[in-house]
Amino acid sequence: MNKKIVLILVIILGATQTNFAQIKGLLGKGCFSGKEYKSNGYSSDYHKEHVGEIIFSNKTILQNDQSNLITTYNLGDDLHLRLFFPEEGIANTVFGMFEEDGLKNISKLSFVKRKLYEKTGKCLDGEDIIDGLAFKVQFYINGKKLVAALISKSELEEEDKQKYTTFRLGMSSKERYFGDGVLKLFSKEVSKLPISNGVHDVKVELIPIIQHYPKEFEGSVMASGTFKVKISDFDAANKTLCPFPNNKWEQGEQEELEAKVIKAFKKKGWKETPQRAIISTSNWIISRHEKTGVIVARFIEAFVLSTRDDECIYQSFNFYQDYDGSGFQENLYLSGVGSQYSVSCKCLK
């Protein structure tokens, strides 16, 4: 081989090894390959003027409609939010937070330098970062944190996280909206507070978060807003505060059947103390043998409202009566357990 070529190769290899050693020493918290995503940009002039803000209404807030905004919210009413992010969108903004946190975005480097960083084995994939991205919504009342709840990554489409610069949350007693659970949790926790009737200050913050893979991360506040909540005498009939189903039983002897539900619940020996039952089916549901079709039992679905220590909860169950060939058993037994939810104890009074 030509001595001149060998000398050049030696110089290049030596320089590469030196750069690799320098990069390993400078890595600090690590690096990531965060390519720039094309965002939807500003949705309106109003959006451009209110980046980083959250606005509120009792109705769904469309992108270019601020006609029904509120500054005071009556506890128990519908509540809707709209959040405005920077023009570059959610993904690019989060990548910027990673850089502020000390991680180097190698997608901005030359091909050679990018490969050197990748060889260190410390670089995160930008797509994994966005895939793991969720949001924490924090509520403060009178300056004290009341609740922090998660909008999980499974609720967010990848396109939303890559392109969106604004989105909305909503809570209604009649329909299901994105973020419904988070807002209902806020209303429930406010209703449980030992504070006086009147007007109280509320602050809402939205924070990007990654719980586990590819890296635990909590960013800075992406959007925030304030409103006043008006608290008056508690209304247990309000479905936002007390989201129980209506009693649907239509076959008579309702009180007797509810008593049997409570008796079957107590037989389980759980820590909860049942307070009352709500039958959520209008009639018995027949259960048949899978192969023969012979009747084996009948059951109803019912919600049991109960207390446990200082907590009040409600949960759905199936209650059965077996069939012996000539009739159904008199007593009920519990088989089939639904999700459990906490609720203000004022709902049980």
Tell me about this structure.
The protein has 349 residues and is α+β, with helices and mostly antiparallel strands. It folds into 2 domains: 32-105 and 123-231, no CATH class; 254-348. It is built from 8 helices and 17 strands. The protein has helices at 3-26, 45-49, 89-100, 111-119, 126-131, 158-163, 180-192, 254-267; strands at residues 31-33, 54-57, 72-74, 79-84, 104-105, 123-125, 134-141, 144-151, 166-171, 198-210, 217-218, 223-231, 273-279, 285-288, 295-308, 311-322, 333-343. The strands form 4 sheets. Strands 3, 7, 8, 10, 11 and 12 form a 6-stranded mixed sheet that branches. Strands 13, 14, 15, 16 and 17 form a 5-stranded antiparallel sheet that branches. A 3-stranded parallel sheet has the order 5-1-6. A hairpin with a 6-residue loop joins strand 10 (198-210) and strand 11 (217-218). Helix 1 crosses helix 4. The longest helix has 24 residues, at 3-26. It is globular and about 80 Å long.
